[in-house]
Design brief:
The protein is mainly alpha-helical. 50% of the residues lie in helices and 6% in strands. It is elongated and about 70 Å long.
């Protein structure tokens, strides 16, 4: 029986390059630098042919490719489709001004995070958690707000503010990972692939109150949207879900009975742990204030600079499920850090940085010689 040399998968070459925010020209230059001047030069055309499957990347070229991208060679040989990251609808909460390249980088990071976590679960001998995210079909009679109320009831959540949105999602079977997405224009992304639990990638740059709304927004997507649809319409539906999930009308309406001003919004932010802007929009949507009152407060908030930086700090909610998994691997199952990193298809330094030290930055790394 002939054993073939490991060979890079074209789709994975594209995925890992995009995860680093690199162009094909960048990869060619990084390969040339990683080679230290040895061997033939590498061109953008070589990288293009490798990614399109027109040439095989094996042996020394595979090692060089991996060094240029700062990933283990084994990762480059995985087929994203086989490993469940090439399919599935990705949702995200982003600003319209986010460049397409940045969005592709974050989507690639989401896919690779799925591979990392699948590898860690296999190393632990455990299955991915079972998800309890009901699927709600929207209609003229069933709204996104109805879906939010259904989810709160199904998850046994008490009335009033949500204690911990991230913990609620984790207890329902989601995997939540905080990462510095190197942009302030995207708050969160999520994906639910068949046979696996939902995965949330949450931007650690965002304030705690915005992160809470973003996670609730992503929960809304997963509950409401299993098929592609109108982007703007789905975003409105996910926002309506998040508003009702975090600020149920029956619980918060009474908070607005005596009107709204800056002081009142700051006080409500402390208890409900959502932004003052979200509270103001909620008061408007419940007809607790007039359009004129809404505009008056908005103008005052803008004058005070609160549209870009609000007062009242809301702590960032920290995920627990993934850190506990890593702790079990390293402490209970006594895997070495190198073994755990290999299971996650990461170089040891990146594994320590992302999963042990809390340095969540997923930036482009220089070639490692």
């Amino acid at each position: 029986m002939v054993v073939k040399d490991p060979q890079a998968q074209p789709a994975m070459l594209t995925l890992v390059r995009e995860s680093r925010g690199m162009t094909q020209t960048d990869v060619a230059a990084a390969m040339a630098e990683a080679s230290g001047g040895a061997g033939a030069s590498v061109s953008q055309g070589y990288v293009s042919k490798a990614e399109s499957g027109r040439l095989a990347v094996t042996g020394e070229r595979l090692e060089l490719y991996a060094a240029a991208l700062s990933y283990p060679p084994d990762l480059l040989c995985l087929d994203p489709q086989v490993h469940g990251v090439g399919v599935g609808l990705i949702h995200h909460r982003k600003r319209a001004s986010l460049p397409v390249g940045a969005l592709r980088r974050i989507h690639a990071q989401l896919a690779l995070t799925r591979i990392q976590l699948n590898g860690l679960y296999r190393a632990a001998g455990e299955e991915n958690p079972q998800a309890d995210f009901p699927q709600v079909e929207l209609s003229d009679l069933v709204t996104a707000k109805d879906a939010a109320r259904l989810v709160r009831k199904r998850w046994g959540m008490p009335a009033g503010p949500v204690t911990d949105v991230v913990r609620s999602a984790e207890e329902a079977g989601a995997l939540v990972v905080l990462r510095d997405l190197e942009s302030d224009l995207l708050d969160a992304a999520s994906q639910w692939t068949a046979g696996q639990g939902p995965l949330f990638l949450v931007n650690s740059r965002a304030p705690g109150d915005r992160c809470r709304f973003s996670v609730a927004h992503e929960i809304g997507h997963l509950v409401l949207h299993r098929e592609p649809g109108s982007g703007p319409e789905q975003e409105k539906q996910a926002d309506a879900f998040a508003s009702e999930f975090l600020m149920p009308a029956s619980d918060i309406r009474g908070e607005f009975t005596n009107g709204i001003d800056i002081t009142k919004l700051a006080s409500l932010k402390r208890s409900w742990r959502v932004s003052m802007s979200a509270l103001l929009r909620r008061a408007m949507s419940l007809n607790a204030i007039t359009d004129w009152q809404y505009r008056t407060v908005i103008i005052e908030m803008s004058a005070l600079g609160y549209r870009t930086s609000e007062p009242v700090h809301v702590p960032l909610e920290e995920p627990c499920r993934v850190p506990f998994l890593v702790d079990r691997l390293l402490e209970e199952r006594t895997l070495t850090t190198e073994q755990a990193a290999s299971s996650a298809c990461l170089l040891t330094g990146d594994f320590v940085r992302l999963y042990r030290e809390g340095n969540r930055l997923l930036s482009v790394n220089p070639p490692r010689r």
